[in-house]
Structure formats: C-alpha cells, structure tokens
Amino acid sequence: MNENGIIRRVIAASSVGTMIEWYDFYIFGMLAKTISTQFFPEGNSTAALLSTLAIFAAGFIVRPFGALVFGRLGDLIGRKHTFLVTLLLMGGSTFLIGLVPGYKSIGIAAPIIVLLLRLIQGLALGGEYGGAATYVAEHSPAHKRGFYTSWIQTTATLGLFVALGIIMAVKLNMSDASFNAEWGGWRYPFWISILLVAVSVYIRLKMSESPLFSKLKEEGKTSVNPLKESFSHKANFKMVLVALFGAVMGQGVIWYTGQFYAQNFLETKCNLEFEQSRTIMLWAIAFATPFFVFFGWLSDRIGRKWIMLAGMLLGVILYRPIFSTFLKDTRSGNYENKLVIEKYNLLSRTAQLTKDRKTH
Fold it and tell me: Which residue has the higher pLDDT, 222 or 261?
C-alpha cells in the first residue's frame, strides 16, 4: 500500500473510533432532561435537571486527567493498544448507563452509579481524543499535518450529529410516554453504542503502531517517565500552559457555545419544540463540518496561530448578536415567525396525538 493509502486508512480508523467516543459522550447531555426524571427523585424538576447537568459536566472535569493517564500509557506501550483501552472503557460505560435502574427502583444508588460511569467516560475521552490526533500526526508529513489532523477535529461535530440523529429517529417512532418510561426508548441510544464500538474495535485491531513510536522503541528512546519529563522542564511546562490557556480553553468555549449550548438555548429560551431545535442543529452541524478540514488545510499554508485567533475573535464579536437574533425572531414581536412556530407546534402535537392513538 502506498503512502497516501496508508494515511487514508489511518485517518479513517482513528476518526471512526473517536467519532463513536464523542457520540457516547454526548448522548447523555442530549437526553439530560429525560435522564433527570429517571435518576433523581420527583418533586423538584429544576434541581434534578441541574444535578444531571452536573454529572454531565463531571465528565469534562476529568478529561484532562484522562489525557495525562492515557497519554502516559501511550508513550509507554504505544498508541494502538491505548486506543483499544479507551474505546472499550467508553463503550462499556455508555452501555452500562443504559442498564442502570431508575431512582424509583434502587434509590440514591442510581445517580451515584451513573456519576461513576460518567467519570470513566470522561477519562476515556481525554485519552482518546488527544491520542487519535497524536497518532495521525505521527503518520503525517510536516507540510500536511494540519490537513490530516483536521479530520480528527471533525469527529466531535460528527459524533454530536450522529447522537442527535439517532435520538430523533428513536423519539419520532414512539410516543412520548414510551420514550420517557423507566425502561423506555431513551435507553436505546445507549444500547446502540455497543454495536458501534464493536465495529470500531474490529477496525482498530487491524491498525499498525505509529511509525514514529515504533522507531523510538526500536532505538530504545521511549520515555521512562513521560509526565516527569514533560513538567519538570521549565520550557515544556510553559508550552503546556500556553497551549491550555492560550488556545484550548478559548476554542472549547467557542465550540461548546456554538454546537452544544445553542440547542439548549433554542429549546429553553426560545421555546422551540425538541424536533425543531434538533433539526436546526443538524443542518448547522452539517454545514459547519467541512470547514474543519478547510481550515486545517489552510493552516498548513499560513500557520495555525492566526487561524485560531481569528476564529476566537469572530466568536467574541458574533455570538451575542446571533443569540439575540434567535430571541428576537422567536419571542420578541416577530409576528410572522411566531405564526410559523405556532403552526409547527400544532402540527407536531397533532402528529403526536395520532401516534399515541395508534400505539394504544
């Protein structure tokens, strides 16, 4: 197989697995409202939802630790085997969340078990995402590294897209009562995860080790203590802080505001129906995804720094007017738009009533 064929295979295998891990990570957030009614006591829906979102956030909090733990493991035993560990941890945790009985069945044990599984998810994703980018980068020539690793950056968006698509497909094919029951349809996306993980494990078993790591191992130059070597040197530690606070933190705010918080905003602040807000997000994600690859390609030509700065600056300038427009068009006197929304909501309720009659 020629060099282009090898790198395409590497990108495909890495991207599919990482996309599935993002899918696993996001379905919990997509279903937060339903999950809050299942794993917390009745009587205070707001507190239950906030508690569920706190569990969701816990996965993000431990992600850096996952990156450190599995990054070190990758430096010691290689990328391929570390990939398989993170994938199995993520897929197994997601599947098990779908099997945890509700609060009515096992009481306070329900949210505690879910929290523990969510922490495992966060650790696994922390190792997976950085590991996949490193694996692809180590296969890439220097002049195409931005382009090739940009495919890994699309996986977070594609994972969100797949999560939204599967949840909508399940929800649209059953009544609200069936979907929201203790052992109802909301659990299906968690169970489906095990099938996706099986496919990814099969693909990744056929992957070879990173050529750069293999060369270092043959020459006996692999790190004995990667963490100590990374943080004990002033120059390395400075680089970590610059990357974390100068680039990753700002990009995280931009990404999660545009692709995650936006759907919550459309549903809770703009009062759009579940299907309508998710449909808007699906179209937005489909439109945005190719630009990850475009700007990765562009970064190989003009550098990474100014592209990152320009993206964060655009977010600072444009997010407020964009979200203000959402509110204006849905709540603040746009009469024609209100009529469209009311008509859509009426049609949705009519379709749901028809579906309920057929179900019963």
Answer: 261
**Mean pLDDT of all residues belonging to the chain:** 80
- Return the sign of the alpha-carbon dihedral for residues 208, 213, 216, 222: negative
Residue 60, C-beta contacts closer than 8 angstroms, at least 6 positions apart: 122
Same domain, residue pair 340 and 278:
yes
Number of structural domains found in the chain: 2
How far apart (Å, rounded) are the C-alpha atoms in residues 129 and 156? 9
Tens of pLDDT, residues 66-100: 777 777 777 777 777 787 888 888 889 999 999 99
Where are the extended beta strands (E) located within the chain?
none
User: Is the whole model's pTM more than 0.85, yes or no?
Assistant: no
Helix axes 188-205, 79-97, angle to 10 degrees: 160
Q: Which domain holds residue 334?
A: 233-360
179-218 CB burial, b ≥16 within 10 A, e <16: bbbeebbbbbbbebbeebbeebbeebeebebbeebeeeee
Question: What pLDDT is stored for residue 338 in this prediction?
Answer: 52
In which band, very low, low, confident or very high, does the pLDDT at 336 lie, cut at 50, 70 and 90?
A: very low
273: left (phi over 0), alpha (psi -120 to 50) or beta: beta
220 and 241 part of one domain: no
